[in-house]
Amino acid sequence: MINELPNGWVKTSLGKIAQLNMGQSPDGEFTNTNGDGLPLVGGAADFDNDKIKSSRFTSKPTKVSEEGDLILCIRATIGKVAFSDQSYCLGRGVAGLQSFVEPRWLYYKLQESAKKLDEAGTGSTFRQVDKKTLDEWPVDLPPAEEQKRIVSKIDTLFARSKSVNDNLNSIPKLIEKYKQGILGAAFDGNLTRAWRDLNNLSSAPVLKLQAVVLDFAYGTSSKSSPVGEIPVLRMGNIQDGKLNWDKLVYTSDPKEIKKYALSAGDVLFNRTNSAELVGKTALFDGEQEAIYAGYLIRIKCSEHLLPSYLTYCLNSPAGKAYCQRVKSDGINQSNINAKKLAAFQLPVPSIAEQIEIVRQIELAFEWINHLAYETSSANKLISHLNQAILSKGFTGELVKQNPKEVNAKALLENISRQMKAHVQPIRKKLPSVKQENKSMNRKLIDVLSDANDWISAQEAFKLCGVGKNATTEEIEPVYAELRSLDHQGYIEIETIRDTNGKKLFDQIKLNKKSDHAS
After folding, report:
1. What is the C-alpha to C-alpha distance for residues 228 and 36, in angstroms, rounded to an integer?
2. Which range among 113-117, 368-372, 432-436 has the greatest average pLDDT?
3. Cα–Cα nearest to 270, from 261, 279, 282, 258
4. Considering only CA atoms, which of 23, 123, 8, 34 is closest in space to residue 69?
5. How confident is the model over 24-72, as pLDDT tens digits?
6. Residue 500's pLDDT is what?
């Protein structure tokens, strides 16, 4: 049955196997980018896949995670998780988790739960999950030894999928290299050498582009609009040697439309762009009405030059090398004017051979484009495969259960005892208070440890035995301990004010870093 727990497992919640530490944004006055203080993790922007890459710091941290803790995104982009490789200040967009189970098991469990956690987020401006949701988040807990086997199996399978994914990610570069190889062979004569021999033809003459072109014309410099009658093609619409009809702008100006109207067979050359992209070219085949913008040059071919042949030639290694050689570099962009474009030299074989060259290029590209599509599909499958691995790992289907192992119920009881006793070692590490504190009913550090959150100073003193009618001798030991703890950084003190700025009361709590005091 789907809902039946595997042998030895037990149902529990996240708050019963991990200590939650909800983030709190530090005061902006103490936030900086020059490395002063602890690095600040505010949200998903500070994550780089499964690593923390923080760019901000704070000299007055609020909530702090320690090395080995997990940091979980709980706001806006919910569900990202990473291990804390050092101490970090936790902003309001994240929560820290100190795991009392196998840490990497919990890490993978949070990955497996990421989508559902995101769906559980609430809020209109920024969706987020609160402490109650996290604390009560359902967890099916396996025995301790099985957790380790699950982690080992997931690690192994993920390593394999990563290897496959890395290989797949290298294919697009190989595809581009292959395409450039085909284009290189097409315009140095090698692609159709056998065809020429079969037809008793000699090598093609090399001519300047201006000798076989009717016209070079710059596009419109008028401002376009988000809506209108006719699309205005810009440099961004030339992608991989083709026209991309996404992210269009428009014009409704009849004079502009008449002057810059494109005709089927026009070749569009990108004259101004970054140094890497200047010179990219696409063919307009008349699929819909359009005009062209000023960063493009429209080329009209003569009867001796096939537009598709010219497009492939300008996008070939020879065409790109020419563009890099003649471009004029400015600030953040390069330019190639019509005069330089007209001087480009290219082989101009017969129209019959140009047709054959285009046919062979497109035949080769059709096969390689299919491979690119299959690669993209495989990449998506890898992502689904990883999620399937996680799903099986946390339903008991990934590794075998061992009935001889201590079951998770006993483990959970042990964790409960550990979490309750977790504050005890802290007290041994905190500085001792003066001898006169023996007269107090309870020590302040004990009160704050039990509270485990903000508590008003008045209530804290009351729990220490200092009431309204307490004498100076009774109050002074508590203040002495308070000053000692504050001086050594073991507590935080916050003043609560009303909307007019009037002080209402002070509240106190233990600082996170006191957990690791020595």
Report:
1. 53
2. 113-117
3. 279
4. 23
5. 999 989 999 999 999 999 999 999 988 999 999 999 999 999 999 999 9
6. 58
| DSSP output for 9-24 | -EEEEGGGTEEEEE--
> d(Cα 77, Cα 318) in Å, to the nearest integer?
45
DSSP strand pairing (56-58 vs 31-32): antiparallel
Describe the crossing of helices 351-393 and 144-187 by its angle, rounded to 10 degrees: 180
d(CA 516, CA 297): 67
Q: Which helix (H) or strand (E) is 414 found in, with range? A: helix 408-420
CA angle 459, 474, 470 (to 5 degrees): 65
Q: Which residue type sits at 454?
A: W
Contact residues for 186 (Cβ-Cβ < 8 A; gap 6+):
192, 312, 313, 316, 357, 360, 361
Residues 263 and 280: their CA atoms lie apart, in Å, by: 19
Percent of the chain at pLDDT above 90? Answer: 70
Query: Where, residue-wise, is CATH 1.10.10 in the chain?
Result: 429-516
Neighbour count for residue 15 (Cβ, 10 Å)? 17
Task: Single out the residue of 89, 99, 97, 134 nearest to residue 492, CA to CA.
Answer: 89
10-143+401-409 maps to which CATH number? 3.90.220.20
User: What pTM does this model have?
Assistant: 0.62
In Å, how far from its chain's centre is CA 295?
32
- C-alpha distances in angstroms, 72 versus 84, 302, 314, 339? 10, 63, 50, 58
Quick: pLDDT tens for 292-302: 999 999 999 99
Can you tell me the distance from the alpha carbon of 129 to that of 120, in angstroms, rounded to the nearest whole number?
7
Phi, psi angle pair for 381, to nearest 5°: -65, -35
Residues 6+ apart with CB under 8 A from 349: 192, 201, 204, 357
Q: Give tens-digit pLDDT for 5-17.
A: 999 999 999 999 9
CATH fold for domain 205-348: Adenine-n6-DNA-methyltransferase TaqI; Chain A, domain 2 (3.90.220)
94, pLDDT greater than 80:
yes
Tell me the pairing of strands 138-141 and 47-48: unpaired
Which residues in the chain are classed under CATH 3.90.220.20? 10-143+401-409, 205-348
The CATH-assigned architecture of domain 429-516 is Orthogonal Bundle (1.10)
- Which residue type does 141 have? L
Q: At residue 92, what is the residue type?
A: R
